[in-house]
Design brief:
Blueprint (H helix, E strand, L loop, with lengths): L1 H14 L10 E10 L8 E8 L2 E8 L3 E8 L4 E6 L5 E5 L12 E12 L2 E10 L6 E6 L16 E9 L2 E12 L13 E5 H7 L3 H7 L1
Parallel strand pairs: 6-12
Antiparallel strand pairs: 1-2, 1-11, 2-3, 3-4, 4-5, 5-6, 7-8, 8-9, 9-10, 10-11
């Protein structure tokens, strides 16, 4: 259970800050996630469903399973959806827990273009303070970078980017973009989910010995 909580935290830090700035986007963004500093057999994907200011972000991992988050961008409200054998929870995420990486990186535009998921993208050289070597990102100006809050200063949405984590360096590559109109109920808290705070959820799954140490 503790490993499961750590996986949820990592997912939360990476995805829960998605937001929108200019214009609107409705549709789906599917990213493949790979660990690049060490080869493994874990398969991971991230799917972002968007409907103007509403988001549902789904992470699939062959080890930890599925994690989902829904967010209302204008109201800045988000809920992590957690399924368990006894009870399902909609956990109110604490926005102050989100890792702000704005001061952790710098970037420069580079010459050269390519296509990712049939989309013409431009090149960036990114210097991240946690990585000794420069990283190459690719982005599109047609969608706001605010949809990927972890690099929200970029001049457009990154379609290929890297995220340093405790588990290693992760590479995100867009595999498919769909322009459509997802149903509204996709962005609602499902029936039967108990709404609790992040602190309540964390305390609920602490080991008894840890709870004693907190007294």
């Amino acid at each position: 259970m503790r490993y499961f909580l750590l996986a949820l935290l990592l997912s939360l830090f990476i995805i829960s800050g998605f937001s929108q700035n200019k214009g609107s986007f409705s549709g789906e963004l599917t990213y493949e996630i790979e660990r690049v500093d060490k080869k493994d057999t874990v398969r991971s994907f991230m799917i972002i469903y968007a409907k103007d200011s509403l988001l549902r972000v789904v992470n699939f991992n062959s080890i930890t399973g599925k994690q989902e988050l829904i967010k209302h961008l204008r109201l800045n409200r988000s809920y992590l959806l957690v399924e368990s054998d006894q009870q399902n929870f909609a956990v109110r995420t604490n926005e102050h827990l989100i890792i702000d990486t704005l001061e952790n990186y710098s970037f420069k535009k580079q010459k050269g273009t390519r296509k990712i998921a049939e989309i013409k993208v431009k090149k960036l050289r990114v210097k991240h303070k946690e990585i000794s070597e420069d990283l190459t990102f690719y982005y599109t100006k047609s969608i706001s970078s605010k949809y990927a809050n972890i690099y929200k200063n970029l001049p457009g949405l990154p379609l290929l980017f890297y995220v340093p984590t405790a588990d290693g360096l992760l590479k995100y590559t867009l595999k498919e973009l769909k322009n459509n109109n997802p149903p509204l109920d996709l962005f609602m808290i499902p029936q039967g989910y108990e709404i609790i705070s992040f602190e309540e959820f964390t305390n609920k799954f602490l080991n008894p010995s840890e709870q004693e140490n907190k007294k």
